[in-house]
Amino acid sequence: IKINSCFPVMTNFFNIKYWSKIEINLANKPDILLSQFSIIGLIVAVIQIVNDIFHANFIGASIDIFITVLFLTTYLLNEKKLHTVAKVIFSGFVTTIIFVFAGLTTRETGVYLLFFPIVGVSFLIFKNEQKLIRNISIAYSLLLLFLLELTHYHPFGMINIKEGITDNTSYYVNLAVSMLALIFAIYNLNEINRLIEQRRQMIANEVKVKNKDLEKINAELDHFVYCTSHDLKAPLSSILGLINLAKLETKDATSLEYFSLIDGRINKLNSFIKDIIDLSRNSRLELVKEKISVKNL
Predict the structure, then answer these.
(1) In sequence order, which ranges of 80-130 are alpha helices (DSSP H)?
(2) What is the CA radius of gyration of the chain?
(3) Mean pLDDT, range 262-275, rounded to an integer
(4) pTM, two decimal places
């Protein structure tokens, strides 16, 4: 029973979709990616700890443990919806530690290679409204990399915490991590573009359907206005005809005055119906711009 209950948990761990509990949608994609990259960073840091302990490099292992704590903190804060704080830690403190680690070893360890996935990840984890923080993060990473190159990878002097230890293992580990992280970043970039295109196409289809519905509604409205105006104007015209007949058959001044008042009210109502028809038609007509002579007008 224990094996059966643990198996789904192990399966979920190897499925990257279950690495974050954040609601899956396009808007939350950058936050989900941060949690996923944090887990990847944790795994890589643990591998580096094992590698450094195997080579009796306890100083390097200590730095790796500190990096592990940073990645774990980033993950927990991000899952607690403190996304901006988590991203600052990820792009700021982690980048600084990598710089320190690269400066305390040699170029042959390949620690500097980790700067490239950090820059790539920065393009993905920050949203559009966090553009300023993203640009600062990328500029900071490139500045530290430039500083390493400028000092020939010895910004702290000729200190090497891996002196006497082969650099091949560390180099291949860092190279593999950098390549996998970049591939993962490019894959997710394509995935985001696919989701955006899918969303755009869905909106375009919805707009197309709504336009057809709107055209149908406008046609029905035109028909309604036409029928209603005809049904209203017909009895009014009949009333006007009867009033004119009544005027011809009576000579009483008071009656003629009343008929004139009724006639005026009916003509006013006719004018009002005409205005409604014109308003209904004009509201759906396109504007036609024409040059006019203000002087003649």
Answers:
(1) 83-88, 94-103, 115-125
(2) 38
(3) 86
(4) 0.60
